[in-house]
């Protein structure tokens, strides 16, 4: 069964697409190295540049070749990257508020 791949284009999630379709979108310039993609329905969102066999080191799309795997399925683990979603924004706000409350509480104890 082919892997279900999703990507974000113009703020909308597109997919599922196959690896060959994702590569076609990269060649057309729709999927760029900084486009967020995920493999599977609940996979981790990563930048397309981190997928193997999709872009070269300069960020140019790698076209289809018969000897290459049809699905850019492996994610390079060379750094943290995640899309800015409503849940990550909400989590950031909650953590910030908790830190602020703890800081105020600590200052009231000292002074």
Q: What descriptive keywords fit this protein?
A:
single chain, 111 residues, four-stranded antiparallel sheet, 4 strands
What does this structure look like?
32% of the residues lie in helices and 15% in strands. The mean pLDDT is 81. The chain folds into two domains: 76 residues, no CATH class; 28 residues. It has two helices and four strands. The chain is elongated. It has a four-stranded antiparallel sheet. Strand 3 and strand 4 form a beta hairpin. It has 111 residues and is α+β, with helices and mostly antiparallel strands.
List the topology elements:
Layout: E1 5-9, E2 12-17, H1 19-28, E3 36-39, E4 46-47, H2 86-110
Antiparallel strand pairs: 1-2, 1-3, 3-4
- Major sheet size, sense and barrel closure: 4 strands, antiparallel
Counting helices, strands and paired strands, the structural category is: alpha+beta
Strand order of the largest sheet: 2-1-3-4
Order of helices and strands: EEHEEH
Shape: elongated
Average pLDDT taken over every residue: 81
Q: Count of helical segments?
A: 2
Based on CA atoms alone, the radius of gyration comes out at: 19 Å
Provide the β-strand percentage band. 15-25%
Q: What is the helix content?
A: 25-40%
The end-to-end distance, rounded to whole angstroms, is: 64 Å
Low-confidence stretches: none
Number of domains: 2
Number of strands: 4
């Amino acid at each position: 069964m082919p892997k279900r791949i999703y990507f974000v284009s113009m703020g909308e999630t597109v997919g599922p697409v196959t690896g060959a379709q994702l590569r076609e979108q990269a060649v057309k310039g729709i999927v760029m190295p900084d486009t967020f993609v995920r493999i599977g329905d609940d996979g981790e969102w990563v930048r397309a540049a981190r997928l193997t066999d999709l872009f070269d080191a300069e960020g140019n799309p790698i076209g289809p070749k018969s000897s290459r795997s049809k699905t850019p399925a492996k994610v390079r683990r060379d750094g943290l990257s995640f899309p800015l979603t409503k849940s990550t924004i909400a989590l950031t706000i909650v953590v910030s508020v908790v830190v602020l409350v703890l800081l105020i509480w600590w200052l009231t104890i000292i002074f």
